[in-house]
Amino acid sequence: MERGEADPPAAEGQRGEGEDDFGYGLFPDRNKKPQSFLVRSLFTFHNRCQLMLRMTLDTNPYAQLLLEAMKQSGCTVFNDRHFSCENCDGCVSGGFDSATSQIVLCQNNIRQQSHMNRVVTHELIHAFDHCRAHVDWFRNVKHLACSEIRAANLSGDCTLMNEIARFKFGLKGHHQTCVRDRALRSILAVRKVSKETAEKAVDEVFDACFNDLEPFGRIPHSKTDAKRAYKDFQNRDRYNANL
């Protein structure tokens, strides 16, 4: 499981002490039987999560671009199939379960629409990477690091306003610092590796993955940037179709 917001089915049986659970422990509802629609409908958290998800998918330009890009790559996303609102560990907001190609949204931790927008975008970037490349999420920490770098860079996680809200300030190179830090935090949350190992993986792939701006073509620092990127993406598809 890749934890997207920095703030995987699990193997059957008991794991030995110190064995990596690949972050699934942060998402306890992953191993539970699905509740009936009637039971789920009684819980405000679940209703609110579903409503905010629909709003994001219908109106957020970051998410709309990623959904279109995944469709173009042969990986159409369906709301009921590829998103799941669940209760999670108190420290996480969302994750991408590569075993089921499903995005987990932590209904007990996502309380604002802007937060939902960021989480969905972040996890859709992981899903896009999973669709377009042979990502070895569980055995190659460099692959995980690359996708976490891209997600932090392109999802809006490191916008100026978000960093100010975290009481983090900086000028030159601050965006890169934020991306590096959030990628590192996400890796350490879902993998039992040393900080030194995680830092080494981030350092080795940082330049290439930070500069991989697909499918946006730019770093979208705001919704305005994302709208422009979405428009450019649509025009690019029309241009390619006429070749």
UniProtKB/TrEMBL annotation:
Q: What class of enzyme is it?
A: hydrolase
Cite a GO CC annotation. mitochondrion
Please give the Gene Ontology molecular function terms for this protein: metal ion binding; metalloendopeptidase activity
Taxonomically, the superkingdom here is: Eukaryota
Region described as Disordered: spans on this chain: 1-25
Q: Which InterPro entries match?
A: Peptidase_M76_ATP23
- Which E.C. number(s) belong to this protein? 3.4.24.-
GO biological process entries: mitochondrial protein processing; mitochondrial proton-transporting ATP synthase complex assembly
**Keywords, A to Z?**
Hydrolase, Metal-binding, Metalloprotease, Protease
What's this protein's family per the entry? Belongs to the peptidase M76 family.
Under what name is this protein listed? Mitochondrial inner membrane protease ATP23
